[in-house]
Write a structure and sequence with these properties.
Radius of gyration: 44 Å
Helix content: 55-70%
Shape: elongated
Strand order of the largest sheet: 1-2-3-8
Protein name: TolC family protein
Structural class: alpha+beta
GO molecular function: efflux transmembrane transporter activity; porin activity
Subcellular location: Cell outer membrane
Distance between the termini: 52 Å
Number of strands: 8
Strand content: 15-25%
Pfam family, one: OEP
Order of helices and strands: HHHEEHHHHEEEEEHEHH
Largest sheet: 4 strands, antiparallel
InterPro entries: OMP_efflux, TolC-like
Oligomer: single chain
């Protein structure tokens, strides 16, 4: 029993270690999000619906066939299907039929509907691709934010170690009477402030990890983590193009324009569909029906002995009665089921022409509404081009500005690092006080943080420009 307990503990430990060892790269996060993100799944459902719409349009070319069958019992005063006389009876009747209809011409609306369905599917695919691009950028931004928070924490920890060393050294110098007590208090205050900022930084890491996990639709927040690596800057050569060149490329490659163009094509097809209602529709139909009854059949007739004759009319000139033999039908057993079906069947077939004349201006109003939809789609296409141009200009300008900020941050970091080294040397020999040393250290720490922030900001904004340039998400380099 003890061995089993130890084995169970070992398995739990190994599973826990396995869960903790899983760390996600940026590429894995993007690929996972493209497969599992809820927004992407919804866009994929729109593609499936557009495929169903296309199948509906294809189905309009296929004849419609319907079959029906009825088996009923009638009790009470009903007409005898054999004699045609109303009698109190219980009788079973069966009927069946098959009807087929085919639309031969309906103003070409079937063809237009199929064309529209194909365009609609294309628009759904463009929307799906745009959604994937948006999700990929969102994941990349969230991932880089986590990475920045992690590296920011490492900067704080490294600086805190330096502060701890200085705290121990200052304490020794104060006890030796070399430095005043105020320097020790200043270093202690700096140490406490750094501890507090590390706690805040750890919380920011947890929050950013949860946000990234939610984007990926991952529920296990506790074991979710990313690979801690330093991403280099790739793709900066794209900024050698002019903004106009990137805009022209974006108009050819980006889904925003394609979506607006297909929406305009859909609006134009709606006009053609609406105008098709002005034309006549022509179709063909075929019907087969048969019946069977449980009521007996007439097998003969005999003269009624009580009333051998019955009046059937009167001669107008002579008022003489016209009579005929009054017979009583002889009812026998009903024919077999399938024999009745073959004897009582019938066919009907023909063509049907429908010519629209007046329907309260409904067709005309629908055409006008569709024409308004075309104008609206044209405006939306024009607006999409303007928005894309503005977004590309903004992304291009942001990327160039982010690069300059990154370069400036590197220069500032180098300067602050030298200033901190100089302040450390002066503090170690007692030529500066603890406050000035803490300020130099804080400026160096802020310079490190700013360099990291501008670096990841530049990487992200550079990838936005690359996407506008038409580089697929899978080919983006990080």
């Amino acid at each position: 029993m003890k061995n089993f307990s130890l084995l169970g503990i070992l398995l739990l430990f190994l599973s826990s270690m396995t869960a903790q060892e899983k760390q996600w790269t940026l590429e894995e996060c993007v690929n996972y999000a493209l497969e599992n993100n809820i927004s992407v799944k919804q866009a994929e459902l729109d593609v499936d619906l557009s495929e169903i719409e296309k199948r509906d349009a294809i189905g309009n070319f296929i004849p419609g066939v319907n079959a029906q069958a009825t088996n009923s019992w009638n009790t009470g005063l009903t007409q005898d299907v054999t004699t045609g006389i109303l009698v109190n009876q219980t009788v079973r009747n069966f009927s069946a039929g098959v009807t087929a209809g085919l639309t031969i011409f309906d103003g070409l609306r079937n063809f237009k509907q199929l064309q529209r369905a194909r365009i609609s599917r294309l628009a759904s695919e463009y929307s799906l691709e745009k959604m994937k691009d948006d999700i990929a950028l969102f994941v990349a931004d969230a991932y880089l934010q986590v990475l920045f928070n992690k590296q920011n924490l490492e900067v704080l920890r490294a600086q805190n170690l330096v502060t701890q060393e200085q705290l121990e050294r200052t304490n020794e110098l104060v006890e030796a009477g070399v430095l005043p007590q105020g320097d020790l208090l200043e270093i202690k205050a700096t140490f406490a402030d750094e501890q507090q900022r590390m706690i805040v930084a750890e919380n920011q890491i947890e929050i950013s990890l949860i946000s990234l996990a939610q984007t990926l639709a991952i529920q296990d927040y506790e074991n979710f983590d990313i690979v801690e690596r330093d991403y280099d800057v790739f793709g900066g050569e794209i900024l050698q193009y002019s903004a106009r060149e990137i805009i022209e490329r974006a108009k050819e490659e980006r889904e925003e324009i394609r979506i607006a163009e297909t929406n305009m094509e859909l609006a134009q097809k709606d006009v053609e569909l609406a105008r098709g209602a002005y034309l006549p529709s022509f179709g063909a139909f075929f019907n087969y029906n048969t019946r069977e009854s449980g009521r007996g059949r007439i097998v003969g007739a005999e003269i009624d002995p009580d009333q051998p004759f019955r009046q059937i009319g009167v001669v107008q000139e002579t008022e003489q009665l016209v009579v005929a033999p009054n017979t009583i039908p002889t009812v026998g057993e009903p024919l077999p089921f399938f024999d009745q079906l073959s004897m009582n069947d019938g066919f009907s077939y023909g063509f049907q022409l429908s010519i629209p004349i007046l329907n309260g201006f409904a067709t005309r109003n629908q055409v006008r509404r569709s024409e308004v939809g075309v104008l609206r789609a044209e405006y939306q296409l024009e607006q999409a081009e303007l928005d894309l141009e503005a977004n590309v200009y903004q992304a291009f300008t942001d990327a160039k500005g982010a690069f300059k900020a990154y370069e400036a941050a590197i220069v500032a970091l180098e300067a602050q690092e030298k200033a901190f080294e100089y302040a450390t040397e002066r503090y170690d020999v007692g030529l500066t006080n603890a406050f000035d040393f803490s300020q130099a250290k804080l400026r160096f720490e802020n310079a490190q943080r700013e360099m990291l922030r501008t670096k990841y900001d530049y990487i992200f904004k550079l990838k936005v420009v690359e996407l506008y340039f038409g580089i697929p998400v899978a080919e983006l380099k990080f």
